[in-house]
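The records we work with from here on pair a chain with its fold. A complete example follows; check for yourself that the lines match position by position.
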Amino acid sequence: MFIDFKNNPKGGGKEHWYEIVNDLGADTKGGGKSSAAADNVVEEIRAKGGKAVANYDSVEDGDKLIQSALDAFGRIGEILRDRSFARTSDLDWDLIQRVHLRGSFLVTRAAWNHMKNQKFGRIIMTASAAGIYGNFGQANYSAAKLGMLGLANTLAIEGRKYNIHCNTIAPVAGSRLTETVMPPDLVASLKPEYVAPMVLWLCHEQCQESGALFEVGAGWIGKLRWERSQGCIVRQKNQPMTPEAVRDQWDKICDFTDATKPTSIQESLQSVVDVLSRVESEEEVSANPAAAATEAVGQKLPPSTFTFTHTQCILYALGVGMSTKDPDHLRFLYEGHEDFSCLPTFGVITSQAAMMDGGLSSIPGLNIDFTQVLHGEQYLELYKPLPTSGTLTSECTIADVLDKGSGAVILLDVNTYNGDELICYSQFSVFVVGAGGFGGKRTSEKAKAPLPPPKRAPDAVVIDSTTRDQAALYRLSGDWNPLHIDPSFAAMAGFKAPILHGLCSFGFAARHVLKHYADNDPSRFKAIKVRFAKPVMPGQSLQTEMWKEGNRIHIQCKVKETDAVVLTGAYVDLHGTSEASPENLTQGGGLQSELVFAEIGRRIKDTGSELVKKVNAVFGWEITKAGKNPAAQWTIDLKNGNGSLHRGPYSGKADVTFTVSDEDFMEVVQGKLNPQKAFFSGKLKVRGNIMLSQKLEVILKDYAKL
């Protein structure tokens, strides 16, 4: 047994790696004792410039082994008794369990607190192919080795908070054990030198792998994972479950087509939870789940309203970390401030009510266990600054349903209105654990795609601390999920403590950009996109890294204490300093065309299916202003679903794209400028299928109230 220690946890000075070489020196059956084996390995390590000491204690004396390491460095072997199962004695069984499983437990327990205190630890459990697959004559050994894998997986979960990583290897290497069961020439070719580099990498501080299982030998390394069939429900409500029902569905139970790959006990239990829900509701399992999911696309949730005052705006600002300690924050915290404003990301609060009122459960084809819903990605775009009070109405549409294998992704498009005016657009991407494998598509052109940051050092970095009560404060803005406040609920979800809302980290990152690149001017904010990668614990510090590319600020957010990336593929789009401020849109200083597109958007909502039948095309618009190209981009999708209106870059492909100035656009739609004359004079430029321009009259004349 090797135990690796790094002597400098605080990062100063030169790093040194030390080895404790533990070998009792027993024979392959556990008898006898000799120091020769451990001494030989120590000499070999020292001869190559390494530092090592030998230990001859039994692994059951874990405290003695760890103390040897501490005495030597100040920080932080096996046997076989092969028998067929019928001939395995209590001694054969107990001795193997004591040495392999209990020994691993005792040694690890002795080191655990030292690793916790230094906030660093790397543990490698040595399992065996016999434990993974079983092997004749090794029932005792197989049980112990697979037990070590279970121990390692749990240690990986419990150690996560303390930067303790635990992995398991199943090595194939020549040793005193394998020389009794392998031909001599094979033992000679399976050198331990072909396993050791893998162990060293897993022990290194740069390796972030944890909770994984690897097979390794002869210079080859492979990672293993579990796979589970889709399975089959074989009982009905108030009816007994019978062996005949199991027999009749056996082929389906064992069919690994579209298999899932659960990675946690929460994902594992999802099937049971889903079964209970379906059986109790007497719901029939769809013969074609992909078709059922497709039915949901385009469905609209009941509209929701959100009434608020300046109190909710201020409470949200406090929830995402604003403080009176920073004078620049006062405009978002004091209703009497001359520039009192609402933070732009408050837009997600106004729109999330559309999903939280139970509307998703009413959509045909969507069978969702809401305890298994995770927030995957978020996009928000503002067309005007948010008011500091009022009543907003949100309309939510199922944009798409994607099959990710281990789960399903539901894309929800939410348009929020202030009266009749479209004020913001949100796209929520939610991941439903265990709901995948229905044979649907994996990607969608309707999804707002995350983007990687430039490959250079960030242009700016902001570090901001969350408080212990950050989640308790943020939830007052309307996200009442007990995962963020109830320790017992968080434990059920696999967390040691309640976690911070992803949208709280989202708000932190957005205001970092707003302050650093827009002088806290909310009228400069245009849009934000993020992917939620890992949870944040209240009290941890958020480090936002920023890269400026024109008016787009790429961002990546990390937990400073652990260096774990929590927001990825993220960016914030800003309006240029010369572009219109929010108030200007109604004062003639902005784009007049925005009013037209807002009206087109409302008409699409009312008569979208009819327009799709008439038009069947996707139109792109690039609106210029004072020579800026483009000042705004719009896409009118009258080809997919019930139609939709998108502002900003479009992830799909338009059939025809028009480029025109804001002034000339208004002249055309008001009938003051003939489109053909505009085209031939160069005022209107067209790319793509120009013949589709004939269908513009349906959109601009019949359906735009001007």
